[in-house]
């Protein structure tokens, strides 16, 4: 392990380039209270993935969907704590206190290979999030125009035209050198997102009382991998757990705060997914907002979610920019590389027909590796000499489970996307 030789030196430090935990509002305060830590956990995890949960519940059945959702939440929390415990162990052994990100931890344990593994997973997962944002925005705007499939200009459908209409604006936003300048837009987007999702849940309650559709409890084992992928995507936020723990004022209570946060988010996700499915049953669409009826409120909700994801796109691209510029441009700002990444992500979004299917693909591939495989593997390496057989088996089981889900889930999701009925 790298820390056994180099990290023990008092003069040793990681390269001073920005990392994926670069704070949005400039230099973050050294310490955060428990309520602030809770709020940061909430913001870091709740994202666009929740919008695909009702459709996932339709595929898996509501009870199976809930069981999978809570199981993934517990396993994600466990792996987050594995990262925290691993970092604390390294710091207690070496006095090395510069491990502030997932990438730093990978470098400290496995050297350049460890950082490379984390970097690849972060680039793929963050890029996947951005692809899903573009799919949601273009699909929702096309739905609002009541014309999702009919070509209207040069043979292009409204969905394609809306996606390319976003392209020049995203090039402009991605060109901003520092996230500090995007902070007001991010805060605005978060407020709009919270209000919009709250309205969707209230609307679902009224619709479910009126419609009372037929519901299925279990969808069968054939959709197990699909549901796992969507659930893992929804809870993706493990890359922020080490920065958040570093900033926590009461580190002894961080695990409890994280547990309360994950539990609260699980309940919220379960309600959102369940209410959406209970409202529309087998008519539930891959983007739940497209099930909402006509009217000003429905229009504003869907437009608000599009605005949220539009302004969140450059924030989510920041880790990708950091990794790519560090590895290809010596950590220097590179405009053409940023624009190239936006182009690639836009092209991928054009090829994916279904929002929820893509969530499952990203969740069951890179997010599984990032959330389960790497944390358990790093914990196993650092604690290998003091783990009991039960803990050793538990860590090993998580690694094996993650690899199996990543391989089989990726294959299943790709087949779903390529299916003619997708």
TrEMBL record:
Subcellular location per UniProt equals: Membrane
A cellular-component GO term for this protein: vacuolar membrane
**Gene for this protein?**
LOC106778046
Q: How does it sit in the membrane?
A: Multi-pass membrane protein
PANTHER family annotated for this entry? AMINO ACID TRANSPORTER (PTHR22950), AMINO ACID TRANSPORTER AVT3A (PTHR22950:SF674)
Species for this entry: Vigna radiata var. radiata
Question: Membrane spanning segments where?
Answer: 37-57, 63-84, 120-144, 156-176, 223-245, 257-280, 292-313, 333-352, 358-380, 392-414
Provide the organism lineage as a comma list: Eukaryota, Viridiplantae, Streptophyta, Embryophyta, Tracheophyta
Source organism superkingdom: Eukaryota
* UniProt keyword list: Amino-acid transport, Membrane, Transmembrane, Transmembrane helix, Transport
Where primarily located? membrane
Q: Where is the Amino acid transporter transmembrane domain?
A: 32-414
**GO function terms (MF aspect):** L-amino acid transmembrane transporter activity; neutral L-amino acid transmembrane transporter activity
Can you say what this protein is called?
Amino acid transporter AVT3A
Signal peptide per UniProt: none
